Automatic annotation (TrEMBL):
Signal peptide: none annotated. It comes from the Bacteria. This is NUDIX domain-containing protein. Residues 1-122 form the Nudix hydrolase domain. It comes from Enterococcus xiangfangensis. Pfam families: NUDIX. Keywords: Hydrolase. Its cofactor is Mg(2+). InterPro entries: NUDIX_hydrolase-like_dom_sf, NUDIX_hydrolase_dom.
């Protein structure tokens, strides 16, 4: 499964979003369609999820997880029209935050990805490590239909 997420900066602030019923902030983005190019998919997701046009600029990094068949692409994305109006039926909330003072309840992997953006040394290839027993338990639960 391929995912793409955007780092969108406006006036030195980073855009974070929350899905309905989830208490965790995240970067905007989500799953890519099968056989969809990553940059095209990122642009499509921004248009569908936030209702504004964008330009996909730089690849920040490619992230994988041990014991998972998941790959995540993180891009720097620029609004086509500055200060675009955002509307979303998919997100319960969206807000701009100080990039150096992120909220505590942010999705854990995003800390690393935002840190990689701040270093300016990208693209990065990173593999998140996970306890193999935890991965096996998650896989077992998923197969049983619990998750």
């Amino acid at each position: 499964m391929k995912n793409a997420y955007a780092i969108i900066i406006r006036n030195g602030l980073i855009l974070l979003v929350r899905r309905p019923g989830m208490p965790v902030w995240d970067l905007p983005g989500g799953a890519l369609l099968p056989n969809e190019k990553e940059r095209d998919g990122m642009q499509r997701l921004i248009k569908e999820l936030l209702s504004f046009d964008s330009t996909v600029e730089d690849l920040i990094g490619i992230y994988t997880k041990e014991y998972h068949e998941e790959i995540t692409y993180v891009y720097k994305v620029q609004e086509t029209v500055s200060q675009s109006r955002m509307e979303s039926q998919d997100y319960g909330a969206f807000n701009f935050f100080d990039i150096h003072n992120l909220p505590l309840n942010i999705f854990p992997d995003r800390h690393r990805q935002i840190k990689d953006y701040l270093t300016g040394r990208y693209p990065v290839r990173w593999r998140f490590r996970q306890n193999r027993w935890l991965a096996r338990i998650e896989k077992f639960i998923t197969k049983k239909g619990g998750l």
